[in-house]
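Practice record 12: protein with magnesium ion.
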Amino acid sequence: MPADVADYTLQSPETAARFARIRQREVILSVQNLKKSFVTNGTERVVFDHLSFDVHRREFITIIGPSGCGKSTFIRIAAGLDESSGGAILLSGVPVTGPGPDRGMVFQGYTLFPWLSVKRNVMFGLQMKGCSDIEAESSARQWIAMVGLEKFEDSYPHELSGGMKQRVAIARALANEPRVLIMDEPFGALDSQTRAKMQAHLIEIWKKVDITILFITHDLDEAILLSDRVLVLGVNPGGLVEFIENPVPRPRSPKQITSPEFIALKARLDELIHPPQPEGEEEITIPPMVKLTVAGDEVE
Ligand SMILES: Nc1ncnc2c1ncn2[C@@H]1O[C@H](COP(=O)(O)OP(=O)(O)OP(=O)(O)O)[C@@H](O)[C@H]1O
Ligand SMILES: [Mg+2]
């Protein structure tokens, strides 16, 4: 570690006390020796193995790792959309065997029904669950207000910006009152300004709702700004690399990006997901190319 970078494991007494309180909360999600492999053309490829960790109620966990390390695969198993190849995930002590209303999902791609209004999109899951139209509508209104879209409840998805669509997706996921909200790069397609607003918005929602969040991202700033702990997954071998208690104090603001704790944690995360290449190995090799410009037309 360079001398000017603080130790990412150092926590202020307030932060240490906050983590002590978090650890006393019930374990809502327990991942036990989880394995996932795919068999292609008769060959087994292990995505991850021996994945074990616990998440406490109302923790905000961000998950990072190199592309292909199995982040989406892991949360698809947690959501019950895919089966593991071994081990188990327990939700409040009960093994996950399929999808259920106790887990809500938000993906990067906009997954709203284009033919339904905002209100009808949010009502959909509630109606599927057997709520009456009146109940579903009143609950949908409440969640639409929570994400600040009251004025748009009769709009259709194509009339909304990307950030607004994701707010509807969050309202739709929360309307079923899940215990765990699972988000796979939900803000990945948004411009940086909208993304920052959505991050602040999600934190406000998380403070008001009894929800535990698993949030995948490629953006290290986002992983730090949002999380209580950051789960780092690796490749070859795939699995847990480190599960880090975020030392940056709460409440957070984008200004903390220049704080010593933030810089220290970011340096550590960067090191974990971009391990130094072995001597003589280039990460990207650029093949020799034929020149297609005329002489004298070189860029500088
Ligand atoms: N249905 C499948 N059949 C075979 N291999 C699969 C299947 N689904 C995923 N994989 C493989 O599992 C590995 C993990 O994929 P996954 O999508 O979970 O990675 P990820 O960490 O989410 O990546 P990214 O950051 O690019 O989203 C990849 O090597 C992928 O090719
Ligand atoms: Mg993915």
